[in-house]
Amino acid sequence: MNFLTHLECGMCGEVLPAHKVWNLCPKCSKPLLARYDLEAAKEVINPGIISRREPNMWRYRELLPVSDPANILTLGEGFTPLHHARRLGKELGFSTLYIKDEGLNPTGSFKARGLSAAVSRAKELGIKSLSIPTAGNAGGALSAYAALAGMEAHVFMPSDVPRPFINECRVLGASVTLIDGLITDCGKAAAEGVKKYGRFDVSTLKEPYRIEGKKTMGYELAEQMNWTLPDVIIYPTGGGTGLVGMWKAFDEMEKMGWIDSKRPRMVTVQSAGCAPIVKAFQEDKDFAEMWQDARTIADGLRVPAAVGDFLILRALRESSGTAVAVPDKEIMETSYLLGRTQGIFAAPEGAAALAGFIQLLRQGWIMNEERVVLFNTGSGHKYSHLWD
Ligand SMILES: *Cc1c(COP(=O)(O)O)cnc(C)c1O
Fold this sequence. Notes:
Elements: E1 4-9, E2 15-17, E3 32-36, H1 38-44, H2 47-51, E4 82-84, H3 86-92, E5 97-101, H4 111-124, E6 129-133, H5 137-149, E7 152-158, H6 163-171, E8 175-179, H7 183-197, E9 200-201, H8 210-224, E10 232-236, H9 241-255, E11 265-271, H10 276-282, H11 309-318, E12 322-326, H12 328-342, H13 348-363, E13 372-376
Parallel strand pairs: 5-13, 6-7, 6-9, 7-8, 10-11, 10-13, 11-12
Antiparallel strand pairs: 1-2, 1-3, 4-5
The structure holds pyridoxal-5'-phosphate.
Residues 109, 111, 137, 204, 236-242, 300, 347, 349, 377-378 line the site of pyridoxal-5'-phosphate (PLP).
């Protein structure tokens, strides 16, 4: 059904067979990327065929990692609306602002895309037990798809994660372990169980397929904009999987002749309380340093060290993009602005993207009439304590 051919290391270029189970590159411990036979794919599918399919991310299934359709685990993830944000735009004096609302995904965030792809593929490869360190949303999404597959899910979360995130995982049948520390500490705790019990580690970018699910945001954006891309994409960045995934999708689509070579300027937005990518971008570094004392209300952005840091920084630079940090206070303010103008109750990460946009508009980095897409990456419901 699909055109997956092999895996390739994003750093050293090592080539590996896709039918085996992999985490990081065995040579250099960097993320592996899925590669497809795009020449063959373009003979079989095209935008016209895709437009007649079900409105979920599996409409791009030839370019996703699952080879037997019977292994696809779907709860209706993807094909989220792209809104022309007219009222918000009017308030900001900017008429070409769009919002891709990922809060409508199963389990309330775009993590559903990545985990739908990764758990489906894990099932296909015969894996029975899954493990994840998470700031919140990835745990819920893993739990949901593992439940659907009848697989075990082991979720490791910081103990200060809001209750709704924990409760969601438990109701969805996962075993939840709370860790006194950050997501990086959860990673260490999860790694012990991986070693001891042979669980498969689905940490972001530490296995090759979550990014494949998230890249479908890039395919959808092109499809929803009539096979063109916007001028600017504003993305609240934690591990960077979605940003790197979209960047990969654009390349794939160009190789199949679906879009031309024009690319959006990619923008990373982080919280001022945890901005390792912004710092590395400004200092012209290829890798980011570990951020000390990471603190922000936007749990998904509380990622002090990202394994895919060099891939994020590469995409930002190749696209002539940029990276900005926004204080939590502004994130709170923009959440109300987005809510009262567009009727979207956004996760703080989505509100951060709006705060980043406003900063860049004021600096003159974004010009009038450029088409700008903001990603609201999740729903505000699980974080509703923030507005108490
Ligand atoms: C995980 C998460 C992010 C960060 O996503 P990455 O692709 O890992 O950078 C942003 N927003 C929300 C709501 C999240 O759950």
